[in-house]
Structures are given as C-alpha cells and as structure tokens.
Amino acid sequence: MLVNNNLHRPLEVVLAIPVKTYDIDFMGIVSNIVYIRWLEDLRLKFLDEHWQINQQIEQGYTPILAGTEIEYKRPIKIMDQVIGRLWLSNLGRLKWTVQAEILSNNELAAVASQKGGFVSLQNNRLIPIPEELQNKYLQCKQGFQKI
C-alpha cells in the first residue's frame, strides 16, 4: 500500500491522538485493533470539518465503510506522541476512498486506505456521491493544480 507522498491531500484533517493505557497489548505496544478506532476518529473529524453527519442524516443518507487496509510500519508505545492524518484521495460516482497515515514521534508508524460510499436511510441502498461533496473535492483538486 502506498501513501500519497504528493503534498496535495484534498480535504486533509490532522488529529493529535493520545495513547491510552487500554490501547496497549501484553507486548507493551498499541494493539492492532486500536488503529481501526483511530481511523474512525479521523473520519469523524473529516465529517466534522467537511461534510457534517447531521446534515447527511437530515438529507436522508449516511456514509458507510466498505473496507480497510492497514500496513504497520513500526510499533507505537504508551509515551509516543501520535498524529493522524486523513484525506480524500479518490471520489467516484458511487464510492469514496480516504488515505491515512499515523505518525509516532514524527516517524511513519502506519498507512491505511479505506473505501466506502453513501446509503439511503430509506432503503439502505448505495446512492451517488452527493453533488456538494463532489464539488468541494473538485475545487480542492483544481486549487492545487493552479499552484
């Protein structure tokens, strides 16, 4: 799995992530399952900043997650300073992809990719990506291309 090394990361969010005692496994490192929770925290921050979940629900749809891939690069320990970054790397007609990286003490500790879409709350069926989100994504990409 490759992380987008390009500095252009559409709609990127950054989150300081505290390592809790309950995140640590018997080996003294952050358990693999904790990374899934951290990705959820990053996606929630993304929604807070770029596409509020309450507005989606009011409009009759909600995001769903279809898959997650994580590649662990180095272990994270209790006293490490952890930062998560997540950005929208692809937006198709029906599906979105976000990429993320987790840094520990300014070193890459993990990279991840998640795919999903939006479903109607009436029938639980996949719907096209909302036009407003498509426009926001395209504006962000076009702004980078002008630089």
What does this 3D model show about the protein?
Strand 4 (95-104) and strand 5 (107-120) form a beta hairpin. Helices cover 27% and strands 36% of the residues. With 147 residues, it is α+β, with helices and mostly antiparallel strands. The protein is globular. The model has no long low-confidence stretch (mean pLDDT 92). It holds the Pfam family 4HBT_2. GO terms for molecular function: fatty acyl-CoA hydrolase activity.
Q: What keyword list fits this structure?
A:
single chain; 147 residues; alpha+beta; Thiol Ester Dehydrase, Chain A; six-stranded antiparallel sheet; 6 strands; 27% helix; globular
What general form does the structure show?
globular
CATH class: Alpha Beta
Annotated CATH homologous superfamily: Hotdog Thioesterase
**Biggest pleated sheet:** 6 strands, antiparallel
Structural class: alpha+beta
Distance between the termini: 27 Å
H and E string: EHHEEEEEH
Can you name the CATH architecture?
Roll
Give the radius of gyration: 16 Å
How many discrete structural domains? 1
- How many DSSP E strands? 6
CATH fold name, please?
A: Thiol Ester Dehydrase, Chain A
Strand content: 35-45%
Catalogue the unreliable spans.
none
Average predicted local confidence, pLDDT: 92
What share of the residues lie within helices? 25-40%
In DSSP terms (H or I, runs of 4 or more residues), the helix count works out at 3
GO molecular function: fatty acyl-CoA hydrolase activity
Protein name: Acyl-CoA thioesterase
InterPro entries: 4-hydroxybenzoyl-CoA_TE, HotDog_dom_sf
Pfam families: 4HBT_2
